[in-house]
TrEMBL record:
Gene Ontology MF terms in the entry: peptidase activity
Protein encoded by which gene: yugP
Domain of life from the UniProt record: Bacteria
Keyword Glycosyltransferase attributed: no
Record field: transmembrane: 6-23, 121-139, 145-169, 190-211
Protein name: Putative membrane protease YugP
BP GO annotations: proteolysis
PANTHER family, per database record: MEMBRANE PROTEASE YUGP-RELATED (PTHR36434:SF1)
């Protein structure tokens, strides 16, 4: 059982690398396709936020590629420079997605609220879990290993909660872009490609984390039986 879970975990890890490669490739492909609206990612973000009563949420550029995110503490949509300044299908898709998170925040979307509340605990748990797991293995201390599993479980739960948050933000983004005329019918395919590729990275990461959790639990059970 442990061996099978190990193989599945490696396969899931490979999937995460492939998903990251795919999202970058998809973004770069659709970054070459100009949006018919002619609006940049920053302009689309500003319009979406304003139309949803989020005038106080700023839109700022940040260095890097695919570094886009919504900061709920400072209430800022931060867009990577290729998204902020460009008017491609990829740029406006990513910008709309991040605005989807800002709208979730305004509406107190359940999964987002839960994720925010989990973050301080998960941040601590994910930093200490590897040490507990490794310490339990090398010191042959099952109680320490079991405690590591508990902490690791919190990190896995956080990734699972993240899935509906990301899918909902993408769904909101696409609906808004169609409704408000930021894209035409022929551009919907490109928007879906960009948003789906990004979503796949979260699915792959969650799957890998979940399989790792199962593997650790199986290791604990086998060790207890051996004793």
């Amino acid at each position: 059982m442990v061996t099978l879970l190990w193989i599945l975990s490696l396969a899931a890890l490979g999937l995460t690398f492939w998903a990251q490669f795919r999202v970058k490739g998809t973004f770069r492909k659709w970054a070459q396709e100009p949006a018919s609206s002619g609006l940049t990612g920053a302009e689309v973000a500003r319009r979406i936020l304003d139309s949803n009563g989020l005038h106080d949420v700023a839109v700022e550029p940040v260095p890097g590629e695919l570094t886009d995110h919504y900061d709920p503490i400072h209430r800022v949509v931060r867009l990577s420079e290729p998204v902020y300044y460009d008017s491609s299908i990829a740029a406006i898709s990513v910008a709309a997605h991040e605005c989807g998170h800002a709208i979730q925040h305004k509406e107190a979307y359940g999964a987002l609220v839960l994720r925010h509340r989990m973050f301080p605990v998960v941040n601590f748990a994910s930093s200490i879990a590897p040490f507990l797991l490794m310490g339990g293995i090398f010191l042959h201390m099952l109680n320490l290993f079991a405690l590591g599993i508990v902490f690791f479980s919190a990190a896995v739960a956080f990734q699972l909660v993240t899935l509906p948050v990301e899918f909902n933000a993408s769904s909101r983004a696409k609906q808004i872009m169609i409704r408000d005329g930021y894209i035409r019918n022929l551009e919907e395919r490109g928007v879906s490609k960009v948003l789906n590729a990004a979503a796949l990275t979260y699915v792959a990461s969650a799957l890998y984390a979940l399989l790792e959790l199962f593997r650790f639990v199986a290791m604990l059970v086998v060790s207890q039986n051996d004793d």
